[in-house]
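Lay summary. Proteins are chains of building blocks that fold into shapes, and those shapes determine what they do. In this project we predict the shape from the chain. Here is one chain we studied, written as its sequence of building blocks.
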Amino acid sequence: MSISMQSHNILLFLFYQKREFMSLKTYLSWYNYILPTFVGAILNLSGHGSFFYAYLPYVVPFMVQNFTKGLGHYRHRYRDKLLKFHEKRKDPVFMMDQDGKVISSVGFTHDFLKNHHIHNLKDLLGNKADFEKLYSDGDGREHEIYFEPTKQWYSISINKENPQECFVWLRNISLQKQREEGLAKIIEFHSNITTFIRDETDASDILKNLSKMILSLGYQGLFMIQKLADGRYSGRAYRRNEYSKLIISSEIILQSDANLPIFKSRTYGDIIWANRQDYPSVAAFEKDFPFDSRVKKFFKNPIENVIDYHSGDISIISFNKQGRIGKGDELIIKALLGSVNSLAKMIEKNQDNEHLFFASISGLCAAAEYSDEVTGQHVWRVNAYSRLLAHKLGLEMSMVKIIGKVAALHDIGKVAIPHLIKTDAVYNDNQRKEMQMHTIYGAGIIDKMIKQLDKKHRALDISRDIALHHHQYWNGEGYPALKNKQGIIEDASAQNIKHYQNLKPLAGEEIPIAALIVGLADSYDALRSKRQYKPAFSHKKTVEILTLDDRTGVSGLDRFGPVIWSAFLKCHEKFDKIFTSLYG
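And here is the predicted shape, written in a compact code that computers can read:
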């Protein structure tokens, strides 16, 4: 080795001594020589009778020892740095014995364990059973735990090379769990798309579902807006109260040129997020994010962090996520809002198709009414009564909406018997039996519509039930007769009256609930309306007749069943209001 290289290594060694271990300072500090000098003086006095016989033999070993230690540190300087890594590591690493007792920890881990009073791994896991399972699973196998005091998820594993001195490794996986949870919410949202479309969900329902999902991700609140036709924006704020109930603000209208945080992502063309703790002051944070006073008043708590994004005409800003907002939140919000925007467009298209469908239904209803009613409003009142009663019964909203639109088809079969509809005289027995066939004819008309579609259609299926069964009685005395001697309900495809003579009507829960609802609505309106064979009755008289018809002895309970009849008695005054508003 050359002299220059040797000199370089010596200088590097001495520099390392001074910088890392301060050995040179140790050599030059006089107080480090007090102990060797004192020991030397005692030995000199005992061996030679003088304090000042010789000191160098006692001082030199101290210098050699320090030099040797410094040389060892120099040779292993990188290894020593690596060993110190765990002191600075923020994810805890410690040693425990086979009973879980912590026997060694340093740095951040030591502070973590001390601050949370963790003396045993069982204190971290929460119970003995989890400890035994983790310990028995052995080397390297990871388990996930949630530590409530820090609100963090950890992956924990044990190295058991020496059972008496086991290494315990924790890895913070909170961000990973957050992303997994966010992905699960996105998958859940996508899985509900079919339901949303089937149920004719409108934009407010979609946003309400989205708000619930975002709040479940750890946010305290959010504010969503949609662009209006006049260029302004309409929005609502969402939060949960102390009972976890969703609270929705009244409508908040914003001007498009307002300097508000919710427009930031539109201005910059990308998602925007910020944490107040990254700002030098609250004032600096609020200068960048000047929230609308109405929104601040609704949320009540100071705003600590925000994330803002838009997709299409929808913008959303979420507040006060537990912990900090980061990249993981950005991906989740982007995916959710992108799904909502696409879903809104799909539902809008679906609703256009539904409007065309129900427009066709309305045309059929008008044709049926033209052949029967002179009032011009009967079928539309039946729609209104039926929707009210279905809602009162607590049926799902999609079912309520459908019944409220297709109830008018109940008498569609009368288009097949116009010669009877225009008859003023009382029907004889044969005419009465033919009139009752309008239920069969109506089901047949709707069957042909279903066949043309070549797929299942919920609204048409409910329409068929209504047309076929709206004259069935709960006590089994209605029509048409469809049940054979074996109790099997036949399909009502036969158009011959004689086919049904030996069959029995349906009864009780065999009757579809939509048909019972519309049956009551139709009966109420028929009694309220003037016909060629009867006068119009008042609301009070109509309720009396429905309660107990003195002509037949049949009660409302016999005819419509306990559930439907009870619901009617709770809302019959609203039937009167509907009749009055839609009469004529």
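What the prediction tells us: The CA atoms of residues 445 and 579 lie 29 Å apart.
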